[in-house]
Amino acid sequence: MIETAEAASEARRRAILGVIFGFSAALAYGVSQVLARHTVSDIAPPLVGSCLALFWGTLGCALMASRTRGAPIQDFRRGVFLFAAGGIFSAMGVTGLFIALERAPVVIVSPISSTNPLFTLVLAAIFLRDVEQLSPRVVIGAMLVVAGVVVLTVA
Fold first, then answer.
1. By CB count within 10 A, which of 75, 88, 117, 145 is most buried?
2. What crossing angle do the helices spanning 106-113 and 76-103 adopt, rounded to 10°?
3. Of 112, 134, 113, whose CA–CA distance to 123 is shortest?
4. Half-sphere exposure of residue 11, counting CA atoms within 13 Å on the CB side?
């Protein structure tokens, strides 16, 4: 019984940390989009801006990852492929965002780009069936977020 209570407490702590980091990421993305809009409006073209943003992001991630040296890698080849694919899609997303910010106001682009939870849910349902469980509550929450985006964009 004690192990079950400890496991539940640990799961709750991890979930709370996940929510905190999720909101931190949302704040960071919000700041980055405002800065990106300023950059592509007054300083540099979108491709230059996205390359510089990805460079600094890579440098920051490398510094943080250096703290985890020696961590075990289960399947190196598969990991390299999946991280590379994720990086390519991330770069496409950042570049697309910078191009969108060059052409439209940040108050329109940001909510539209925030519809990514729908894509994440669909792709998680397809590719992460054995890892992630999508509850009706999660699906409804994502739909409400996207509905809010639609209301903001249309208004």
1. 117
2. 150
3. 134
4. 6
* Confidence (pTM): 0.70
What pLDDT digit, counting tens, does each position of 63-98 carry? 887 777 666 777 778 878 888 888 899 899 989 999
Nearest to 74, CA basis, from 87, 86, 83, 62:
83
Alpha helix positions (H), 1-155:
2-42, 46-65, 76-103, 106-113, 116-127, 136-154
What tokens were used for 86?
A: 């994720």
Task: Indicate the length of the chain as a whole number.
Answer: 155
Residue 123 phi, psi (nearest 5): -70, -35
